[in-house]
Design brief:
By secondary structure, this protein is α/β, with parallel strands linked by helices. The chain is 29% helix and 20% strand. Strands 3-2-1-4-5-6 form a 6-stranded parallel beta sheet, sandwiched between helices.
Length: 245
């Protein structure tokens, strides 16, 4: 394509696939004034994942080294979608190579690292942006407008939920891997289906789930349930009617 932007994505995980999909669909979503986009490469240290992502989203090739992306003359724009502590080195080298960069948030684990990246981009004279994706989401934009107009009052808390592919079964990508509710047989009564206690780790955002045999004491409507969502009695070993068979 004449005057087309050659794009590449470094990182073929869940977020990297979202970037790949965005580049592929950009020409159908935005105005006709958008320059043509040429899907060049997807890079990941996991070659099978890089190859599969490149194939599925229509990229010309895959790479196993981000340095290959920096050296490629047919690539103009690069999405950096890897672990946060890897952003600094990649962005600095990509900018020095004349690549325009879209880096996922946060820029770096420290303000020093982020400042070094900004200085490198300024010195190279390339365009760089941070992936604040939801800032341009129609739903978020609608909420923002309602807040500006005062239709929602002064909200003390904003909570959102995201359904992604992290909980999909590898063998069946279209099937949600939602945990089955456990069955607990009482000593004399019929089977019961207690709830699952859930807790989100503050630093990793990972959801921890464990079976709870104290359904009556820490159920969703139970007063004994703590604010963190943890079962206050989960450390106790259930006996009698609460013992799992």
């Amino acid at each position: 394509m004449t005057n087309a932007f050659g794009v590449a994505v470094i990182g073929a995980g869940m977020a990297g696939r979202a970037h790949a999909h965005g580049y592929r669909s950009a020409g159908t979503v935005f105005s006709a004034g958008l320059p043509p986009v040429r899907l060049v490469s997807v890079a990941d240290i996991n070659e099978d994942l890089a190859r599969d992502t490149a194939r599925r989203y229509g990229f010309e090739r895959h790479d196993t080294s981000w340095a290959a992306i920096a050296k490629a003359e047919d690539i103009n724009v690069v999405s950096v979608v890897v672990a946060n502590h890897l952003h600094r080195e990649m962005v600095i080298e990509l900018a020095a190579a004349g690549k325009h960069v879209l880096c996922e948030k946060p820029l770096a684990p420290s303000s020093t690292g982020a400042r070094a990246m900004i200085d490198a981009v300024d010195a190279a004279g390339v365009a760089a942006r941070i992936g604040f994706t939801y800032r341009w989401s129609p739903g978020i934009g609608a909420v923002r407008e309602q807040l500006i107009r005062g239709q929602l009052g002064r909200p003390p808390l904003l909570q959102r939920a995201v359904l992604d592919r992290l909980r999909l079964r590898p063998a069946s990508p279209d099937e949600l891997a939602l945990p089955r509710r456990p069955r607990i047989r009482g000593a004399r009564g019929p089977r019961q289906s207690p709830h699952r206690c859930r807790r989100v780790h503050a630093r990793t955002n990972r959801l921890s789930t464990w079976r709870c045999a104290h359904d009556r004491d820490c159920g969703p409507a139970g007063s004994a349930r703590t604010r963190s969502g943890a079962c206050p009695r989960r450390s106790e070993r259930p006996t009698g009617k609460g013992r799992e068979r």
